[in-house]
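Figure S7 source data.
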Amino acid sequence: MKTAIVTGGAGFIGSHLVDRLVSERMFVVVLDNLCTGSWDNLAHHSEQHVKRVLCNVSDPWPSEDLPTSANLVVHLASPASPIHYRRLAIETLLVNSEGTKNALDAARRYGARFILASTSEAYGDPAVSPQPETYWGHVNPIGPRSCYDESKRFAEALTMEYIRQYDIDARILRFFNCYGPRMQSEDGRVVPNFVRQALSGQPLTIYGNGEQTRSFCYVSDEVEAIWGAATIDGLQGEVINVGNPQERTILNFAEVVADVGGVPLEIESQPLPPDDPTNRCPDITKARKLLCWEPKVGLRDGLEETFAFFRQKAY
Ligand SMILES: NC(=O)c1ccc[n+]([C@@H]2O[C@H](COP(=O)([O-])OP(=O)(O)OC[C@H]3O[C@@H](n4cnc5c(N)ncnc54)[C@H](O)[C@@H]3O)[C@@H](O)[C@H]2O)c1
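Tokens for the predicted nicotinamide-adenine-dinucleotide complex:
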């Protein structure tokens, strides 16, 4: 049986990835400090398939809890929503620097394939749209989002250096907005915000005039791309956007959410936070070519699933 180590595996994307790895008959070791995740997300897995290790991956990893061999290391641990990475700003800088180094060292020790979860935030507030991987970005290095944006950029630079110096088999995925069940309802990201507000009869909060754009990728599509990056040979050093190229304004997204949720559209406007990107749209030419991948789940279908999850939680 093959073994994978997933940092941040108790979180939103991580727990869905663990489901997939287990379904592919892998043994998964999850390292997580639960700062934004929960073991509840993995409650359906037995210890025979998933080993849970409570630790901060920015600190030295507990060798007594690690497997003797591993084929794959996926580094997902990092606060991901602005509310959390502002609250945990220094922890975010550390998990993407020290934590990435620990994950890379583990991959090197095991001779394992390595996947770094990077982000479209590496592009900052982009001056080109859609964003191809060749675009170097437009990032404020000292603003309130820089603890996340810049530390992810550092994580990418460190990963590339481990490839150059130690020849590890690493790949970098830049995730754009991903959504679906197991997102935290209060994490401030637009999908859980809107769905929670729709379910509780509140107006949907829009920051700024709602003309800023985003593109939303359903989590099963995201996991399919990670699985491709984990299993396809010959991708060492590749940096690949993973996201849905269907770009829409936040205002239009609010209309779709209200429609799927069966509620009248009511909007409450709030000021735009500093450095909020004006547009986000992945160029996925590379993902199509290298991973033979593109998103399959339509927005309305993905939102139905997300509503069903939040309804169960009784908002
Ligand atoms: N969800 C998205 O739309 C999106 C977009 C771009 C990038 N990403 C990246 O994908 C990854 C997963 O994001 P997510 O949405 O699942 O977030 P999440 O907050 O649900 O999951 C992150 C997990 O990492 C854990 N974690 C954080 N710091 C840790 C530390 N120091 N030690 C151990 N565990 C730690 C958390 O407890 C949590 O379980 C992150 O690296 C994020 O930057 C996500």
